[in-house]
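The freezer alarm interrupted the setup, so I double-checked each line after restarting. Inputs confirmed:
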Amino acid sequence: MDNRPIGIFDSGIGGLTVLKEISEQLPHENIIYFGDTARIPYGTKSKETVIKYAFQCIKFLLSKDVKAIVIACNTASALAYEEALKEFKVPILGVIQPGARATNSTTRNNKIGVIGTTSTINSYAYQNSIRALNKNAEVIGVACPLFVQIVEDGWEDTDVAMITAEKYLLELKEHEIDTLVLGCTHYPILRYTLSKVVGEKVSLVNPAFETAKEIKSLLKQKDLLSDKMEKPVYKYFVSDDPEKFRRIGGNIMNKNILSIEKVDIENL
Amino acid sequence: MDNRPIGIFDSGIGGLTVLKEISEQLPHENIIYFGDTARIPYGTKSKETVIKYAFQCIKFLLSKDVKAIVIACNTASALAYEEALKEFKVPILGVIQPGARATNSTTRNNKIGVIGTTSTINSYAYQNSIRALNKNAEVIGVACPLFVQIVEDGWEDTDVAMITAEKYLLELKEHEIDTLVLGCTHYPILRYTLSKVVGEKVSLVNPAFETAKEIKSLLKQKDLLSDKMEKPVYKYFVSDDPEKFRRIGGNIMNKNILSIEKVDIENL
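Predicted 3D structure, all chains:
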């Protein structure tokens, strides 16, 4: 048993969708969340830079004495997960492997679409992970860089969202995919629009859900689950202005975010 | 006379449009350009963070012995220019003041629209600068956060660009503006789409052009112009992968960018 918190990080607020899943499946665990809002987004940046940023995030979480770390950001999971496993001793989980496993148990025709940031798609992390589990899978990746900003602006139900989605997803529709991986934490918020564009028969996979299931098994297996029964404590840290995070994050979490602190992540 | 280089910085590649104007109006000046590609964009970040980043950029340029500095980024000009003037002794020019002067000599009906990033518009820097010169000006600011990504994706002539522009500019059209300030270095690339939406009678003001004129007068006035007649030397520095900058920057400059170096801007 271990009552230390779980650490979660993301380039911004998107990772709160992962936190939410974890809090539902592990309701007694304390959580430390870090959002790197001063350097968001990661999805347009190089592997070298994303690894540097991810390592800084992990070191910050370790300074808060976390017992395990979840990389909630798809880009950081795609570009920095393997390197993080080599660098740090603490148990670390990314969203790619859980997402890939969920995808393979969902598809029937083995034709799979993956959407994500430019860096995530260009890394081939999802494509390779899915094919490593299923040699017959045909995986088509499409970078959708406008989606994050559309979500951040609250434009998810506009004609701009619809036309942009139609443009990005055209190739996937032509390939007659039956499964679409939402390979960025912002995309589940576009779920309705995406489903309308690809058609209701296509299953949408949200890796956040599967990641929460896997962190639970991981903690159980390593005997690291908390034995407390009281209400857990969540602490939030960001690298830019806490107020914007409080406002938008509160909407995602459907409750007020009380404890937020600003951290100088570049000079820890 | 002073043959040291002019320093220019921006959050990324957008400032190359300013460099281009300066190189046309001051063809014998050496230039050092810094693009903060590891932390782009600035336009969604807080004033405190943008000031911190701008100061780091200025310190880097000073380490290269520049004789004057141009803040090519509209967001950094809006949020950090005043503070930079107080902090540093080197002559510094932003794009807001030159843009405001050009706007006031352009408008006939004193109804002016300004478009820019969320941070630029919320800072009221353009609105206040224009009204400080012209008490009768009615200035309406609209944040257009999707435009940068649309330009970065090369989507400037698509239906997505058109519909997005129609949504953002609706209020400005209703106010019957006769002048529109392109308050972000990426926006001149959308000029055709923007002009189609607001109508050809509306004048588009590009602050980059006016900024180049003002840096020329400033250097002349302070006797800092170069007296060299040979081809000038341009050196480029970025905080993320130089190759992406080389590729996209080369398109903006219409020539190959040869000398690019990566800089660890956080730990100078």
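Quick read of the result. Chain B has a mean pLDDT of 95.
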